[in-house]
Structure prediction request, 455 residues.
Amino acid sequence: MLIHRSTKVLISKAAWCTYNTYRKGLSFPSQYSKTETLFNSSRDNILEYQRTRVRQLIQHAVQTTPYYRDLLIDIGLSHDDLTQLFSTDSTDISIIPPLEKKSIRDQLHNLLSDISPDQKRIENATGGSTGTPLKFYQDRTYWNQRNLSVYYFDRWGGWDFGEPQLVIWGAPADVNTGSRWKQKLNRYWRNQFWLDGFQLTETAMHTTFEKMRQWQPKTILAYPSSLHQFAKYLNEQNLKPNWDLKGIISSAEMLYPHYRTLAESTFGTKIYNRYGGREVGLIAMECCEGRMHINCRDIFFEIDSDDPYRIPGDILITQLNNWTMPFIRYRIGDIGRLSNERCPCGNQLPVLAELLGRSTATFRTKSGMLVHGGYFTQQFYNIEGVSQFQLIQDSFEECTLKLVINGEWTEKTCDEIVLKIQEKLGTDVSVDVKYVEEIPLSRSGKREFTISRLT
Ligand SMILES: [Zn+2]
Prediction:
């Protein structure tokens, strides 16, 4: 088995090299090494690189897309003003209005660059966890650059080319791609084993653990909610990995503290939180010191707040490599706050102090206070009697609480939960408790504990 494992690693390393040479050309090793050098360089150096890329992107967008051409006229900005924007050392593009999801839906074709040929455009879409999927276009350059960054940051989490990896993934768009044999082949050469986050039956989890024992993956890449479910099952069955895992990369969903605690103790390794979006790629990655570093090579990151270092606000992303459809100051739908600390890990990339998750999971009170959904998740996840829950804010006055309960449930627990919600949202808020059999995952395969319909 050991020989088989190491042979497979060698085959997979060679396959990765072939794949990257095919996609990115013979210069792949030097491209990767340049990427690594830039990410590891001084803060001044990387911010200077970023400033140049922001300037080039904005000029390209204004010159070749009807949307940004018109926007410049609407805000009364001349080409000279635009040049002025970049004459200083700072990168302040706040004069450009944020790009909203609605504008992408309404003006999809106006956002496309005139000089990007149809056949070079690659269609993509978000799963639409909160409703309609969002369609957009990217190109090969975007994907090549995105992958280089993913390789770099995933290595922080213990991954390396060819090393075996367990993938616990939920997104139907990724799980059900192409024909079955193509999918199998892809997973084989990448040395990955997949556990479908949508089908986490006890049998599937048991079989996966048995396979893991034989095949000893070095890392796990997972949706945190699916990882949590898997870790819970292993704990209940008293099954513990008896080999060394280098790390777990958590991606695509909010990583709640209780997910982290259980998975880290079950698998005996650290979780590295990876934050990104299909629209813009990898945004930030957690380092060994537990800080989220911002991917300044591919992204210009802003917080829509009067004081982004103290007051959390909407995250705005400018994607620097997708010139087919420029995303400038895109309101991605998450809330965060910046940090001005230098991380003790030594990496100079700026740090994201807090990632508070989806703005659609953030509740609002009549008095104007914001309550992040994570507050309720923290309060309710370990209450005896509750197997699953989902809290929905329907209006300022009304909430719906869906509960899947078990044998430990009492009416007293119910009163306590309602009281906790009212304490935070207002004593006059009515909470409609509904007992359900199951709380389905969202259409994008994500678990949503809190939803606000007020956004
Ligand atoms: Zn760090």
The CA atoms of residues 115 and 348 lie 36 Å apart. Residues 287, 289, 291, 293, 343, 345, 347 surround zinc ion (CB under 6 Å). The chain has a mean pLDDT of 90. The first helix runs from residue 2 to 24.
